[in-house]
Each structure stands twice: as structure tokens, then as C-alpha cells.
Automatic annotation (TrEMBL):
Name of the protein: Succinate-semialdehyde dehydrogenase
GO MF term list: aldehyde dehydrogenase [NAD(P)+] activity; succinate-semialdehyde dehydrogenase (NAD+) activity
Keywords: NADP, Oxidoreductase
Domain Aldehyde dehydrogenase: 3-455
Family per similarity comment: Belongs to the aldehyde dehydrogenase family.
Length: 458
């Protein structure tokens, strides 16, 4: 894929970029390694000052950045603006809490290990490579970069090739905030260039958010080099609605949960599993609200759903729907590629899904919802867990027993009760099964790329 900004609303190429040469990649790796030795010697207070300054740049430049995100990947402008502000909030969160999260811990009774004192300390590990996707071009990167830098690590970013201007903005952000030169750099390289960087001995670990095949590839390389990885590889999140749920609220939230960011979110609800007693009413409410969404220019403040980020993504989504319909599913609303410029797909609700259909197993990355009728909570759980993914989940119920039962039994990295999945700096984020390994955000996220040292004193 060419490194280029291709406006998904028009399909026109806005700007292209030459990949960095081998010499430039080497220079940037060397700069990151040198910056690590300088950064690790600084205090948490100093790093926090720089982090807050970088966060302020986001707030100051929110309109410019939001427009850039929208032009590069088609996110409606209101959501793009919210992403910039959320990123700044996440940076400040780690500026405020990094020292607390990485504080030394003393063993309460060191005599148990024949010591006068014992415990643990966290230490940074060095240069970390981040391979990041286009769907949240700022937040996805900064929720890694903020904790990594606050821990004293440095970062190299290989961003998605269709958001190069976002990548280049991030290339200078931290240095503008005061961090040492080289503390965070973008590498304009193709996917084929990742292996060389990851195998470099100066690069100590990697994190990737993206497709399952990409995660398996990066994970296998890292494994052969005995390097730590954090992988977030997508999901097919269930949204379970039980008879005691507030149907009006559940249906309203379901529309946002499925169609946020034009449906291109790993944690978007994708499979709506509804008890038969409330199925007809929920589907009616849900379908009415989906059909009422405004599809159009993502720079228009009134637009709910813009184009998909890439033509190939739109075509793949259309193929999933066509396969389901050909095998008996019904598009209750939507199910078409509109006759207009840009990579649009009509917000869709599919009924009558069966295991024979591809969409039963595969992640639909776009504004397409699948609804399933179930007879009881056991059948709901079987469908919810009947996928190789396990990122997040949502359960709508006002029955305390059902609530606890699903929390205990859902195979997912998170369970949201009577709400939609959202990533918060304060809560760990990550999945199980093919959705990945490791965690981002909260205390867990900053500790992923630290060496947990055991300290013993005689």
C-alpha cells in the first residue's frame, strides 16, 4: 500500500509520501536508543511536565487535528474532535499517575526471605516499536506512547500507511512538548519493513493494534527474538439484551455502540443477541434508529456516519453482507452500497444469521449489525462465546443474578453492564483468545513495558 492520504469521502489522493530510506530508519533507531539513556535518568516530575505540555498542544490544535483525522480516514468531525481531547486527557492521566503506578513495593516481612529489606521496583526497558492502525490515528498511538514515555522508555511508530499526516504530526509532538530529541519518532516504512526494525537489538519490545494475521506475524518475530509484545487484534463483541433490560435505552445505546467511528472500532458492538421475549420490540426500535442515521460528508457537523476509511474495507464489508443475504439472512434496513462518490456503506441491520455465514465468524468492520434471537441466557452465552475473538462485551439486564452470571462466564477482556464498551485511561484494556495478549491503559498498561526487578538486601 502506498504511503498516502486518500480522502475516503471523495476517493481522491490528497498527498503522497516517500518511505524513509534505510539510512533514515537507522538514524531514527539510533536517536531513540540515545534518547532512552537520557530519558531514563530524568524524574517522573520532569517527564510529567513535558507530557502535560504535549497534551496542551493537542488541546490548542484540536480543530486542525480533527480536520486532519476526518480527511485521512473519514471519521465524522465531532468524533474526531472528541478523539483529540480524549488523547490529551489520557496523556495527563499518565502524567498524574505514572509515579504512583511504578512506585517501589516493599515486602512486608523481609525476614521471610532472610533479608533486612526486600521488594520490587519497576525500570524502563528501552526502545519500544508501536505498529498502529488507522481507525483511531491519535488515540490508538497516544494510549501507548503516554505510559511508555512516562515510564522512561522511548518509542518508534510505524503507523498505518493511509494516515501519514497523522503519523508525522505525532513524530514531533513530544519533542515540541520538551522531551529529548528522538524520544518518539515516526518511521514511514511499509509493513514489510517492520521485521527489520523489530529484530534490531536496540528495539526491546513491540505493541501492535490491528488484524489477527498482523498480530500473529509480529508476535512470531518477537518470539524468535525473545521480545515482549502487547497485541490487540480486534473483536466481534456481543451486545446481549435480556427481558429485564430498559429496551428504549438499550436500543439507543446500541446504535452508537455499533456505528461509532463509522462502525470501524475494535470494541464496537457487532453481534446483538436478544432474548426472544423482547426480540421483536428491540429489533424494531433498533432498526428505526439505525435507519434514521444521517450518512454524508464527515466534515458536516450533522453527519452521523461517514465513509469507510478504505475502498478495500468497504468492499470486504459488502462481501460479508452479500454472503449472508445469499444464504438466507435479511437486511432489515440498509445492506447496500450507495450510488455516490466515496467509500460509503449504508448502516445495516441483518436478521436470520446462521453459522454457515461468514459474518457469523468474521469481524464486520463497518456499520453492519447482526441480530440473533435466543431462548434463554444459556443460548445467549453460547453464541456470545462462540467466536475466536474475546475483546469486550455488553450485557443489558436489571436482574442481579443474570448480571453476575454473565460477568463470570463471558469469554472477554471486559464486561460492560447496561452500557456500551468504551476505553478509559483508568481501566485496563485488552482481550483474550484471538483478540490478543497483554493490556493497555491504567496501571497495567504502563507496567507492560517495564522490567519488574526483585530487590533483596542482606
Amino acid at each position: 500500500m502506498a504511503i498516502a492520504t486518500i480522502n475516503p469521502f471523495t476517493g481522491e489522493t490528497e498527498q503522497t509520501f516517500e518511505p524513509h530510506s534505510d539510512a533514515e530508519v537507522e538514524r531514527r533507531i539510533a536517536a531513540a536508543d540515545a534518547a532512552f539513556h537520557a530519558l531514563r535518568a530524568t524524574t517522573f516530575a520532569q517527564r510529567a511536565e513535558w507530557m502535560r505540555a504535549a497534551a496542551q498542544l493537542l488541546d490548542d490544535e484540536v480543530e486542525e487535528l480533527a480536520r486532519l483525522i476526518t480527511i485521512e480516514m473519514g471519521r465524522p468531525i465531532a468524533g474526531a474532535r472528541a478523539e483529540v481531547r480524549k488523547s490529551a486527557k489520557g496523556m495527563r492521566f499518565y502524567a498524574d499517575h505514572a509515579e504512583e503506578f511504578l512506585a517501589p513495593e516493599a515486602l512486608a516481612d523481609p525476614s521471610a526471605v532472610n533479608a533486612s529489606a526486600a521488594g520490587t521496583r519497576y525500570a524502563p526497558i528501552g526502545v519500544v516499536l508501536a505498529v498502529m492502525p488507522w481507525n483511531y490515528p491519535l488515540w490508538q498511538v497516544l494510549r501507548f506512547a503516554a505510559p511508555a514515555l512516562m515510564a522512561g522508555n522511548t518509542g518508534l511508530l510505524k503507523h498505518a500507511s493511509n494516515v501519514p499526516q497523522s503519523a508525522l504530526y505525532l513524530d514531533t509532538l513530544f519533542e515540541r512538548g520538551g522531551f529529548p530529541t528522538g524520544a518518539f519518532h515516526t518511521l514511514l516504512i511499509p509493513a514489510s519493513g517492520v521485521e527489520r526494525v523489530l529484530r534490531d537489538p536496540r528495539v526491546k519490545a513491540a505493541t501492535l493494534t490491528g488484524s489477527e494475521p498482523a498480530g500473529r506475524s509480529l508476535g512470531s518475530i518477537a518470539g524468535s527474538e525473545v521480545k515482549h509484545v502487547v497485541l490487540e487484534l480486534g473483536g466481534s463483541d456481543p451486545f446481549i439484551v435480556l427481558p429485564s433490560a430498559d429496551l428504549e435505552k438499550a436500543a439507543t445505546v446500541a446504535v452508537t455502540a455499533r456505528n461509532q467511528n463509522n462502525g470501524q472500532s475494535c470494541i464496537a458492538a457487532k453481534r446483538f443477541i436478544v432474548h426472544t421475549d423482547v426480540y421483536d420490540d428491540f429489533v424494531r426500535l433498533f432498526t428505526e434508529k439505525v435507519a434514521a442515521l444521517t450518512v454524508g460528508d464527515p466534515l458536516d457537523e450533522t453527519t452521523d456516519v461517514g465513509p469507510l476509511a478504505t475502498r478495500s474495507g468497504r468492499d470486504e464489508l459488502a462481501g460479508l453482507v452479500a454472503d449472508a443475504v445469499a444464504q438466507g439472512a435479511t437486511a432489515v434496513t440498509g445492506g447496500t452500497v450507495p450510488d455516490r462518490a466515496g467509500w460509503f456503506y449504508t448502516p445495516t441491520v441483518l436478521d436470520g444469521i446462521t453459522p454457515a455465514m461468514r459474518i457469523y465468524r468474521e469481524e464486520a468492520f463497518g456499520p453492519v449489525a447482526s441480530v440473533y434471537r435466543v431462548a434463554d441466557r444459556e443460548e445467549a452465552l453460547a453464541i456470545a462465546n462462540g467466536t475466536t475473538f474475546g475483546l469486550s462485551s455488553a450485557v443489558w439486564t436489571n436482574d442481579a443474578d443474570d448480571e453476575e452470571w454473565f460477568i463470570q462466564n463471558l469469554d472477554a477482556g471486559a464486561v460492560f453492564v447496561n452500557g456500551m464498551t468504551i476505553s478509559y485511561p483508568e481501566l485496563p484494556f485488552g482481550g483474550v483468545k484471538d483478540s490478543g495478549v497483554g493490556r493497555e491503559l491504567a496501571a497495567a498498561g504502563i507496567r507492560e513495558f517495564c522490567n519488574l526487578k526483585t530487590i533483596w538486601k542482606g
